[in-house]
Amino acid sequence: MAVSSGMEVIPAAGSRILVAIFAAICWSVGVGGLQNLEINVPSAVLVDETVTLECSWLLEDEEALYSVKWYRGKEEFYRYIPKELPHTRVFPLPGIEVDISRSGARRVVLQQATPAMAGRFRCEVTADAPTFHTEIRSAPLEVVEPPEWGPKLVSDRSWYGVGSNLRATCASPPSYPPVNLTFALNGEEIDIESITHELPPWFKWDPPLKSESTTTERSEDEMNFNVFHDEENLQYLDETYINLHKEEIRRPSKESLRPVYERTGPDNRTPTVGVVSFGVRTEAFERGSLRLTCIANIYNLYAARTELIFDMEQPEVASVLGVRNRSTVPSFIHLWLFGLLMFLWLSGR
Questions:
Q1: What is the span of the domain harbouring residue 274?
Q2: Sign of the four-CA dihedral 207, 208, 214, 220
Q3: Is there a domain that residue 319 lies in?
Q4: Could you tell me if 162 and 175 lie in one domain?
Q5: How do residues 75-121 score in pLDDT, each as one tens digit?
Q6: Residue 303 CA to chain centroid, in angstroms?
Q7: Mean pLDDT of the region 328-346
Q8: What is the CATH number of the domain that holds 305?
Q9: How far, CA to CA in Å, does 210 sit from each of 23, 117, 174, 288, 349?
Q10: pTM, rounded to two decimals
């Protein structure tokens, strides 16, 4: 060991080489023993759904695994240690309910998603001695609360003429996150004038009536897409939209259509209101009608639509006489008719 004039201790060259070799050995063991850690967390799920969290990795020797830990934020809620009995431990955490019977080293199953479950989930995997090499991966999870019924589309008129201005409002009931609204004119997407999350004072909902009987089930499409019917505005699925996105839209189970949980935190659901306004052109009419569609969707979890059909305004055809002719019939004709009737009546006596 060499000592400088300033009394600073400097390791000899041989010592530095040994330290470097030891560090390289430890690093290579760690990398070779635990690698390719990946996490699989769904970016969004519907409320009340079952959620599966997955964590995968490669180990040269499966027995070299020391522990797997799951966190939401900074709080641990699940731990798996193969050398302990039982292997799994669950720590209470609001919004987290672990299904132990379906959980293990590489998978954790959470029951009945609620808004309180949402957050950033972290998987921490540690190799066994001597390195205790640890790898961490994380991903966010959002819990979607869909609208309780479909969107509503309203306009102040049932017909429009060429050159007139069409203005319509589409509103979707409160949801979290707010729905995304898309407008289409005769199947072609059009620009939206404005999007807000407050209902106009004049807007009235038409929620579907709750059936008193539980024996009659709605069709699968109605159950999956929250479709309802209104006397003045027939609302049904846009088959074109569904066919284009059928691989993306994951249909929820019937049990997930209505929340069954008791809300413990704030209600963050908000409505979504979209407005379109445009001048009506001749080409907007197909067979004398104009079709305006509003589609509401949240990710690939929820989709519903509503539609209005507007007739083309037709000019009124005047009668042969015309209004003015009817109002200017000479008054002496009325007097002549009255006299004739009186004469017939007296003659009959």
A1: 145-202+269-313
A2: negative
A3: no
A4: yes
A5: 999 999 999 899 999 999 999 999 999 999 999 999 999 999 999 99
A6: 7
A7: 59
A8: 2.60.40.10
A9: 69, 29, 18, 37, 70
A10: 0.66
